[in-house]
Amino acid sequence: MLKNNRIARLLGIEYPILQGGMAWVADADLAAAVSNGGGLGIIAAANVPPDILEKQILKAKTLTSRPFGLNIMLLSPTAEDAIELAAAHRVPVVTTGAGAPGKVIERLKPLGTIVVPVIASVAHARRVEKQGADAVVAEGTESGGHIGESTTMTLVPQVADAVKIPVIAAGGIGDGRGIAAAFALGAEGVQLGTRFVCCSECNAHPLYKQEILAAGDRSTVITGRRTGHPVRCLKNRLTQEFDKLEDRLADVQEFEELGSGRLRKAVVEGDVEWGSVMAGQIAGLIREIRPAAEIIRTMFAEAEEVLTRLASDFRNGE
Ligand code: TUI
Description:
Blueprint: H1 6-11, E1 17-19, H2 28-36, E2 41-44, H3 50-63, E3 68-73, H4 79-88, E4 93-97, H5 102-108, E5 114-119, H6 122-131, E6 136-139, E7 145-146, H7 152-162, E8 167-170, H8 176-184, E9 189-192, H9 194-197, H10 206-214, E10 220-223, E11 231-234, H11 237-247, H12 252-259, H13 262-267, H14 292-315
Parallel strand pairs: 1-9, 2-3, 3-4, 4-5, 5-6, 6-8, 8-9
Antiparallel strand pairs: 7-11, 10-11
Helix pairs in contact: 2-3, 8-14
Bound molecules: ligand TUI.
Ligand TUI binds at residues 23, 73, 97-100, 118-120, 124, 139, 145-148, 229, 231, 263, 278.
C-alpha cells in the first residue's frame, strides 16, 4: 500500500525506505543487502580513500542489479573525490550530509543522478529545493551521529509544508509503527540507520551491534556540542571523558583530539568502551539481528496493519 509512491518511483525501488549512509558501517555488503531487499542501500563515502571507495562501488554492482546510493559527507576532505566517483560510475542516487550540497547538485544532476540532501531545518530544505534537489531527507535529532536541533516529530511536517519535492523522514524510526507515524507527518519515505546496523549482512563489529541490542531508551548522549558538530552516541567511558571536557569548558581542539579516530575504533575494532558507538535514540527498541530483506518486509507489513487499524478506529470513533 505504501509501495509505488513518489519516492519508490523516483528511486526505482519497491519499498520507500533508505538505509542511512553511516561512516565505517555502510559498505557494499550492507548497501547491496538493503537494495536486494527492496529498499535503497547506501554506501558511505565518509573519509574512505578514493581507491577503496571505487572498489566498494564496483563490488555493490556485482552484488545487486538494483539501484543503490552513495552518501557524501560534505565535511570530509575526500568529498570532491567521492563526487567524481559517483559521476564516473553513474551511481544512480547520491545523498549528502553535514553541509551545503550545491556543488554535488551542480555536478551530478546534469548526468541524471538523483540527488537527495539530508537536511535538519526548514530553511535548508527550501534552499536545496531551489538548487534542484530531487527529494530531501528530513533528519531529526533522534538520529545517531552528527545531528541538528529539531525532533523528527516537529521537523517532518514543517519541511513537508515548506517544499514540493518529496520528504523522507529520518531519526527515531525503528519499526512499522515509526514508518506509519512518519507517513502521518507528511513523509513519503523513511531512512533508517541504527536498525540496519543490527542486520545480518552488516559488517560492523559484533560488539558494536551488541551495544545497540543492549541499549535502553536513555542510553544515548550528545557529545561535542561545543565544537559545533554535535554527535549522538551510546554512553560509555569515552562519553564520560567528553562530559569532563564539557564541564571544564575545554576548547574545541581538545574535543577534536579526544574524538579523532573514535568511530573506527568502535565499528572496526569493537572497542565499545573507548570508541564512539554512534546510534540513534531508537536503539532501545532494537532487540534482534535479522536479514535486511526480512526487516524491510516485516516493517512495511506492520506499518500497513497499524494504518489500517487506525483508519478503522478513527472511523468507528474509538
Ligand atoms: O551527516 C550526518 N550524520 C553523520 S556524519 C558523521 S561523520 C562525523 N564524525 C564526527 C564528527 C562529525 C561527523 C556521523 N553522522 N547526518 C546528516 C546531517 N546533516 N545531519 C545534520 C546535517 C546538516 C547540518 C548542517 C546538514 C546541513 C547543515 O548545514 C548546511 C547549511 O548550509 O546550513
